[in-house]
Amino acid sequence: MPETAAAVTRTPSGRLALAASPEQIALGPLDGRYQSAIAPLVDYLSEAALNRDRVAVEVEWLIHLTSNSVLPGAGPLTAEQQDKLRGIVTEFDAAAVAELAEIEAVTVHDVKAVEYYISRRLPAIGIENLTAMVHFGCTSEDINNLSYALGIKGAVEDVWLPAARALVQQIEGMAEENRAVPMLSRTHGQPATPTTLGKELAVIAHRLGRQLDRIAKTEYLGKINGATGTYAAHVASVPGADWQAVSKSFVEGLGLTWNPLTTQIESHDWQAELYSDMARFNRILHNVCTDIWSYISIGYFRQIPVAGATGSSTMPHKVNPIRFENAEANLEISNGLLDTLAATLVTSRWQRDLTDSSSQRNIGVAFGHSLLAISNVAKGLKALDVAGDVLAGDLDTNWEVLGEAIQMVMRAEAIAGVAGMENPYERLKDLTRGHRVDADRMQEFVSGLGLSADAEARLLALTPGSYTGIADELVDHLK
C-alpha cells in the first residue's frame, strides 16, 4: 500500500523519523548501546526510581506522624494498614509510573502528582479520613531532598561502590601475582631504577582504595522542616508538638543524617563532597587507563584476542586496547558532570531556586559513565597477559640504571673510610649519561673502583632485574 502523509512521519530531509518509531529509541548511549552495563542504577537514579522514593518518603511520613500521635485525632495505624501503605512502594511498577505520568500531566508538578497518587489508594486501605495527612507540613523539597538522598545512597552502597571495590580487588590480585616480577621504571619517560610490576599495581590499588574508603564514609543528609526551614506551618497547625524531634527521628529512621539548619532546600553540601571524592577516584582510574595503555604499547602486556572480534577494519593484525580507551572517555564525561554538580549544588539564591532540580536529574548520568568505565577497565584487565620476556629484555638492555646503586655504594664506602671514592656521582655520570652500558662494561667499571671486597661482591652480583629493593615486600601493605 502506498504510504500516506498521515501514516508516516519524516524529517525535514525526507528520511523516516526514528522518533516516531513504536519502539522507544534511546538518545544517549547509557540508555542504548551501554544499557546492560549500567542497568542496576535504574533502580536508584532513574526518574521512575525517584518517584518511587518520593512515594516511600510520603508513606513513611504518614506512618511516622500517626505512630507518634503527633496530630490530635490521628491515632496509630494498625500493622495491616501500615503493611498496605508500604505495599504501595514495594509493588510500584510500570503501571504506577504511567499513572503518575498521567496525574503529572494535569498537575504539572511531580511531587503533587505523588501526593494525589497516594491519596487515591487510601480508601482501599480504609484510611481515607487521613487524606489530609498525606504531605502534611511538607514543601516539595522536603520530599525531594530525602528521596534523592535515599536514591544516591542506594546507588553508591548497592551498585557503584561494590563494582569499584571489585575492581580494586582485581588489581590487588594482579599485584600479588606479579609482586616479584621485575620491571624497568620510567621517570620522565626515561629508564630509571627498576621496580616490580606487582609493586606498581599495588600503588594503583592503594590509591583507589583510599578514595573508596572516603566514599564509604559519606554522610547522606536530609531535612523535613517546611517551606523555609522554620517549621512555621507545623507550629501553626500543631503548636504543642516537638517538631524538631519529630523531624530528626523521621530522617534518622530513613537511615540518613538529620540536617537541623537549612533554607527551603537541604544545602547539598554532602552531595558536593561525595561527587568530589568520586571524581578523584575517576581521575586516578583515568591515570591507570593511560598507564596500562602505555604499557600495552611498549609490549609489557599482551592482549588476549577475543574470538571473532575485529581490532581494526583494515589491519587484521591489530588488537586495540579499546576497553581502556572507552574507560578514559567515560571517566572524562563522568567527571565533567560530577565537577559541575559539585560546583553548582552548593549555591542557591536566598531561600530557594530551582537550578538544583534540573542539575540533580543528571546524577544518574554521572554515575552511569563512571560505572561503565569501571566495567570496561575490569574487562580490559582480564584480557591481559604479562609479557615476562619483554620485561626481562628491557631490563637487560638498560644496565645504566645501576649507576644509582654504584654511586650510593661509593658514598657509603667513602663514609666508612675507603680511599679513592671521590666524586662518585660525577664518575657515574660520565660513564652512563647518554650512553648504553652493557653488563661487561658495568662490571669492568665496578671492578676498577677499589671498593671493599664485600661492597664489590654485592655490586658485581647486582643486575637490573635484581635491583628492585624491597618492592615485592611493599605489596604486603595491601593486606
UniProtKB/TrEMBL annotation:
EC numbers for this chain: 4.3.2.2
GO MF annotation list: (S)-2-(5-amino-1-(5-phospho-D-ribosyl)imidazole-4-carboxamido) succinate lyase (fumarate-forming) activity; N6-(1,2-dicarboxyethyl)AMP AMP-lyase (fumarate-forming) activity
Domain Fumarate lyase N-terminal positions: 32-327
A GO biological process held by the record: 'de novo' IMP biosynthetic process
Pfam families named in the record: ASL_C, Lyase_1
Keywords assigned: Lyase, Purine biosynthesis
Pathway where it operates: Purine metabolism; IMP biosynthesis via de novo pathway; 5-amino-1-(5-phospho-D-ribosyl)imidazole-4-carboxamide from 5-amino-1-(5-phospho-D-ribosyl)imidazole-4-carboxylate: step 2/2; Purine metabolism; AMP biosynthesis via de novo pathway; AMP from IMP: step 2/2
Swiss-Prot/TrEMBL catalytic activity: N(6)-(1,2-dicarboxyethyl)-AMP = fumarate + AMP; (2S)-2-[5-amino-1-(5-phospho-beta-D-ribosyl)imidazole-4-carboxamido]succinate = 5-amino-1-(5-phospho-beta-D-ribosyl)imidazole-4-carboxamide + fumarate
Domain Adenylosuccinate lyase PurB C-terminal: residue ranges: 348-468
Keyword 4Fe-4S: no
PANTHER family: ADENYLOSUCCINATE LYASE
Protein's job: Catalyzes two reactions in de novo purine nucleotide biosynthesis. Catalyzes the breakdown of 5-aminoimidazole- (N-succinylocarboxamide) ribotide (SAICAR or 2-[5-amino-1-(5-phospho-beta-D-ribosyl)imidazole-4-carboxamido]succinate) to 5-aminoimidazole-4-carboxamide ribotide (AICAR or 5-amino-1-(5-phospho-beta-D-ribosyl)imidazole-4-carboxamide) and fumarate, and of adenylosuccinate (ADS or N(6)-(1,2-dicarboxyethyl)-AMP) to adenosine monophosphate (AMP) and fumarate.
Record family assignment: Belongs to the lyase 1 family. Adenylosuccinate lyase subfamily.
Protein name: Adenylosuccinate lyase
Source organism per UniProt: Arthrobacter cupressi
